[in-house]
Structure formats: C-alpha cells, structure tokens
Batch of 3 targets.
Target 1
Amino acid sequence: MSHAEDSMPHAEDSVSYTDEGSMSGSVIQTEDRQNDNGLRRPSEPLGSQGQSSFAEARQRRKIAELENKVVALESGRAVKDRQSNYYLAQGRGLRRIVALFDNIEDLVNENDRRYDGDGDEDTTIDQDRLQTGYYVLTRTLPWFLKNSSGIDYDDYMRMIKALRQGADGARGDDTAKLKTLISDWVNRELKPNPPVDSDDKNCRGFTSDACGKLLCPAELDWNSPAVRAGIRDRLEGHIVTDLSFPAFVYEKYTANADNLEEGLFKGKILLQGYKAIFTSPSSAKDVEGDGDGADVIANNRRTKQSSCGVKVKKHVAQIIKMDKVTPRSIAYVACQVRFALSSVTSWRSVDGDFDYIQFWRSIVDFFEKPPGREAQRRVNKLLEWWSRKVVGRSRRGDLSNTVKANMSVNALARQRAQLDDAAFDSN
C-alpha cells in the first residue's frame, strides 16, 4: 500500500508557485473559464476541436445578429423613402391650386387659431384668405388631416418639408416650361421684329415692345410713345405696380375703362398658359373655341393606353383630380405668365415696384370675396367659362327642362305613349 500511495501523484505536485506567490497549472488548469456571455464552461485543452467550434459558432451568431440589424435599418429607410416620394408627388399641386406664397404651416396655424376659440372676433381679409386656403388644402389632400394628427412632431415636419419641396419643384418646372412657350406664343400672335428670344430673358419686359404691350397696366395705352417712355423711365403716373392689372389678363389685351370687369381674366395668353400647365403644352394651341362639348379629362382617363398599347402620360389636372378651374389656379398662372413676360431671370416675389404676392392676392380676392350676390353670379359664370375652355366640360347641365323635353329622344317617348293611349281608348 505504501508503494502504491507513493506512486500516485498528489494534486499539490501539479501546482507551481511564482515569485509573486500565485499558482499556475503546469499540465491542465482545473479552474472553470467564463465565457463572454457570463456562463461558466468547463476548461478545454488549448487548440482543441471544441474550442475552435465554439469560436466559429459565436462568430456566426454575431454575423446573423448584425445582418438582422442591417435588414431592419434598410427596411425602415425604405419605408421613409417611399413616404418622402409620396409626399413629394402630392405636394406638386400645392403652389398651383392652394397657395403660391403661403406656407402650409400658416394655413394650419390659422385653422388652429379659430378652432381654439380665438377666431370669434372679426377677422381680417388676410386671415380669411388663409382659412380658405386651409379648406382647399384639405380638399386637395384628403389624407392630410388624419396623417398630421397621427404622427409625432419629427415625422410631421419631415412630411411638411417633403410637401414643400414637391410644391417648389413643380413651380420651378412650370416656370421653365413657360419661359420657352411664352416666347413662341408672343412671336406668333404679335409678330415682333426682332422676335422674342426663347432663351434670353434680358430682351423681354418693357424693353420689348411685344412683351411691354402685354405687361402694360390696363389703364394705360402702350401704343402711346409717351406711355412707353414713361414706363421705361419709371415716371410718376407710369410706375408699374401690382395695383394695376396687366393687359394680358384682358380679352384682346384691352380693358374698358368704364367697365374694367368686362373681358377680365379672358386674355388668350393667360388661357394658353393655364392649359400648358394643367393639361398639356399641345392643348394650349387650341383656345379659340368655347369648349368642344367633350370631357377632356374623362376621355384621357378612358384612353390611358393608346391603340399600340403604350401608356398615355397623365396631365396635371388628372393627377390632382381637378375637374374644374379654380380661382387660385388662375391666380397662379397669372403670376407665372407675368414672370415669363418679364426680364427677371430668377423667380422672386418682387420685381421692381411690382409685388407678386399682392398680385396673387388681388386675383384670389376678386373671385373669393365678391362684394355682393350679383358679383358672385358673374364670378361663377366666369369660372364656368374657364372650365369649358380648359377641361372641355359639356354644357349639358345648362339645359333647361323645357329644352330637354323638346329634344327628339324625349319627344319620341312622349309620342309613343300618346299613340298607345289612343289605341287603348279606341278599344
């Protein structure tokens, strides 16, 4: 027994002491190791297959975890990108039909002010204009109210920013489009010599006789040399401001001093500008008739694909679901046409003594703030004229019951019934 005991190694024999008094395992370390997750695992011999497998598995888990995080981030980014693109597209109509210069926040703030009970006092015309703009906004973007109340502030501001970018982008596109088209229309109709340059705006404005004729205040006669000189020299009595309607907004570019409402907003080039923006540049060539009796928008909707199967591009009126001309869209186009006729090369709200913001407001107020019932009737009639001109609305709704009763379809039905009654009575 003593020999057996002497031959068996003791635990102490496998431990060596360092100079500092610490112990180190000379063959196999007996203590448990702790992994990175806080779990203790039995010690393994260094370089063993088990140690290698554990490291590989741990690495695979970390890679999978990172991949899941990347997928989640990309998915969230994709959702936000889709939302931003949607808001950009939806915002393109805002400057055109809601408010050219007012921000969405201003419209919302005015509505909130009234909702909170601060709108009981008399309101100003500017506040009423903002409130009407809010109504137009919510009709144009039916989802706006629900979306804006169901998201946090940061998402709300991102939505507003995207809408504004879309609106400003559309305004810029329309400005660039009319820059070329206006020169072509002026050259065809007024035949100036030299013709208006389609690229160089510096030759437009009052330095050009053709553009000057269209920009001239309606109460002045551009044909008078004294008037032309006075406007160009900005003399008293000839200073051009937003307080004067330019000649191009009038039918045949001439105003009746005794009845300034006559022919107002029936200018040919104004109508051409409207059709070029809201329907198509090619449709602007046809403005002479009083509507062709066909619903252009409905026809385009039915012919989204041509006979060869190629998809037909939607125009602006279809995209924003506009089936009639609105006051604010006329004001928008009037500002765009005036800017295209001017010599100013970059979009701005003030051109010398002319304030585009006040000009836009004056046109909007003409339609939205008529002084009485008779004035409202004339406004409605003018808007109907615009709708027929632009979207080709049928005049079916204008027919009286008497006129419809005498039309052949109804007359035939009445005659057949009369014949049948007569035959019945004879029997």
Target 2
Amino acid sequence: MDFGSSLLLLPDGKCGNDPNDITLKIDCTAHSVKYDVATNTFRALMVLTNVWCSSGIVTPNDNLVQTGGSNDDERVARVFSSYDSCNWQEISNGLTIKRWYARDHILSDGRQIVVSGRQKFNCEFVHKDSTGNTFSLSFLSKSNNRDVKNLKYIIFAI
C-alpha cells in the first residue's frame, strides 16, 4: 500500500505481503471497509494493491470497479460486489497500460472505458481481451500542458 498501517486489523489474522512496498512489507491492517448505514456497522475488507490515485465506477449490476493506482499497481483492476461476504477481487494485469489519475466511464452498452491518466494519451476498455485494447486519442496529447499535466478530464458519453 506504500502508506503504512491503519488502526483497523484485518479479520482472522490475515495479512498482506508486498515485497515491493516502500513503507510496510507485511501489513495486517485494513485499507478498505464496507459500511452499513442501517446498522451503523462496518466490516474490514482486504485490498492488497495500492489504490492511491486510482479511478473507478459503479457498474449497472452494482459492482464497484476501480482501476490503476500508484507505484507497482498502476495496471491493477479491482472489483467489489456488495454482497455481505464479498471482498475485493484484484486483477493484477487488468489494464493494458499503467494508469495513474485516469478517468473511468460507463458506456450505454454497460462496458467500462478508462481514459487518459498521467502522460497517457489513449483509452482502453475494462476487461481487456487477450490482444489488448488501447486506442490512441490524439486530442489528449495536443491538449497536454506540461505545467497542468491534464490529469482530470471530464468525460461524458452520448
């Protein structure tokens, strides 16, 4: 996770082990929770990858899909279903290229598109097929400003 431990332990003595983590190689604390508003209770969730600077959407079937991140987790896609016993499913090569500060959007057919990211002038669909699916968007590179970095695009599908 690269940002240290939290104050909430993972259940059943579970721990994450990331030899590439620059802060804490073995982490037994939660960095994600599921909160139930009706009962005012929460449950610790296990997420092993670095979600810092990631992006995400809620799918038409109520899954949370989060993409990209920081350091060695910029190509990770994460899926969370809201069922009581579910936890994060982490797909280590869920993206074709590294994404940091990208934008996600749901298209009218239910597919998820991930656009841009720091110094990324393209888009791709989640979940990729075996051939990859990155498409160049030249207007992103033409609008790039070295001082601003164009990290936060507004995306709207018609």
Target 3
Amino acid sequence: MAFAWISSKTFTNLPSSTTSSSSSSSIHSLYPWKLCKFNHHPSRRGANCSSCKCGLSSMGDLKFVLHDALDLAGLSTTHARAARVGFCSQVEKLSDIERETSITVNKGVDLGRAALHIAAEDDSLISHSSVPLPVDDFIERLNSLSMGYCSHYGSSFRSTPENFLDCLERYLYVNKGFRRTNARNQIEQRALYLNSVLTHRSGSVSMLSLIYSEILKMLRMWDVLNFDVEIFFPDGSHSSPRGYYRRPTSKDSDHSLIMTSQSLLVEILKDLKNAFWPFQLDNSISPFARAAQAAQCFTGSNDSEESALGLASAKAARHRMQRGVWTSVRFGDMRRALSACERLILLETDPKELRDYGVLLYHCGFYEESLQYLKFYQVTKQSGATNDLEEDAVNKLIIRLNLILMEEGWSRQADIKKGTLFKNSEPW
C-alpha cells in the first residue's frame, strides 16, 4: 500500500538550477548545508567535490527539502534551521582523522553539542515552540555528571584503570540510574534524544555511549585521567556500553566494536531514521525496500504476514495522524525521518542515504527532487555493494518519476495543504 504522507507539489518558490550566479551565492548563504559533494569516507573512493559538480551539471545542485517545504506551508522553521546550522558547525570539524578517532579522545567535534542540536531541531519540527531547546543548559547538565563523579569517586583516580572503570560504571548505571532501553518502539522515542535521556535516565545504547564518552572527555581535560580508555559498543540486545583499558602496546583500538566519532553520529541518526521511518510493516527487509514496496516498486519475497489486528492498528494510526494526533503506533513520523536522512547525507558516509532520502521524497510528492537524489545515488554508489532487488526498485522508481515529470499537464500548482506534513492541528 502506498502512503502519500506529503503532497507538496507546490515547490515553485525555491530557486531553480537555472538561476544566475549571484542568486546562487545568496542561496548558499541561506542554506549552508546545500549539498555540494558526497565522499564515501570508509573506502575513500567516493567522488570528490569537483567530480561531483561535473556529475551534477545536468541536473543542478541538490538541495534539502524539509525546511523550505514547511516554510511554504506557513510553519516557522527558525529554530530548526538554527539547530541545523549548529549541527553542521560540528560536522565541519570531522576531518578524516577525526572521523576515525575514538570518541574518548576526540577533541575536534563536540559530540554532546551535536546530539543536542539534533534534539533541538526535531523538537522544533514537532512542537513548533516559540522557544528553542536550551542546548547550553543541557550541556551544563552533562558536564555536571563529570563533576559528580569526581565528588563521589575521587579516590579512583589513584587506583588501577580497571578499578576506575568499575567505579565509573557503578556511578553511571547504579548511582545515577542510567539504563538502556529498546528505542525501536515509538513509545520509547525519548530514549533517542540526549536531552530526554539526561532527564529520564533511560536511553538507547548510542546515547549511553555518548554520555560515557563525555564524562571521560571531561576527566581527561581536567588532567585527572592519565591512561587510554576505549568504549565498546555492545553487540547484545540488552548490554550497556562499557569502558576498556587500552594498554600502550595493545592493538585493541582496531576492534570493530569500538566507537569512533563518525560511527557514533551515524548510529544516533540511524536510530532516529529507523524509529521514525514511515513504513514500519515487515522489518525483515530494509527501510528502503519497505518504502519501495509501498510504492509497488519492490517485489522481493515476503514470508511474514501481518495479522488483521496489526493492519487495523496501522490503519487507525494513519487515521490519527491525518487528524493531526501525533500518537502513531506503526506509521513513524515523516518530518523526523526526513530530518534524520538529511543529516546522514551531511555526514557523507554512505551513498545509500541519498537513495533512502529520495524514496521518501517520492512519497512526499517531491518528484523532481526525488529523481535528482536517486540519480545522484546511482552515480556515487559502489559497485558490488548493492542489493539486486533494491537496485531494481531504484530503476523502477526512476522510470516512474521520469514518466510523471513528462506527463502532459502535470503541474506543481496543487494545494500545498493537502498532505499530512502540512496538517498542523495538534491536539494541544
């Protein structure tokens, strides 16, 4: 079944790729996160900035859609844009070295502030509050955890590294009561945002890893920690992040479970994307495949059958969202899914994020922009690292989008307020 969550075909007020160079420079100043390159950092074989521009010469520069679409709908995005700029200011510090640096020794990127800017943007998108999320206040609360550890376990600095880590984990998980939750459920969505985790002491493994690393970072800045510590990202479904003493002669820092600055940001954003992805039926396939299946472009095998109760629950959830009631059970949140995709694209780690963003734009009615992102994905993807069924779905979507854009009489003058994205009748 296809769900057209947004019907925003009126996107004509945005500058086109045929504008003059002067207007283009002014647009760049307004939207500093306008995509101009996409490097696949893990392999370092992605297109560089110059080659990217050549590849885009036939379809113009790619632009993000969410904030501009909400502005056209009459919804203020002032605070959301400010939070995005704050996030971008941290992403810009991700040099090649910083991307591979352990989160416990990272000095360039303020991961706590980046996570709070993520929370601030999503809070603004959903609450439409006239007051932005107080990022600095939560930074202070995060720093106070380090101060609290010093007052409770100051003697641990003179003990062995193993004893220090035991004390730190006792302080974090026992004294302060932080615990891991399963944030896949929409009910637990607050576990995905740092401000909520600091308030409720219940968070995803990514959030707990971030808090753990921020305490270590502050202790290192205060020169009370004189040995190297790594944080292992637990592979179990219930384990919490744990510290590990890295001996000077050890090569354990190459362990795949150790979190780097880049991998932690990717995990945080993928948690958000998966939690709010609008197509939650059949989790045995990827989010893109579910969205393509809803568009009837994916024909992979599906052995799981949804119960009548599950389908009825999903239908009821969709009905509530169309009425503006944000208590959806199985239908995600298109705004926050789009914002997560846009930030993942900014990290420039995986070309598949372009594809996922493109299929969401298709369901939103942004056909031209969807086609641009899907084509750009085909240019930047790595050969041999793709799924044949999913690639077939991409090709079908591109064919359909070309037909839609060529259809005689197709117009972008439809009523912008038809779609769910622009229905702002929150129950409060």
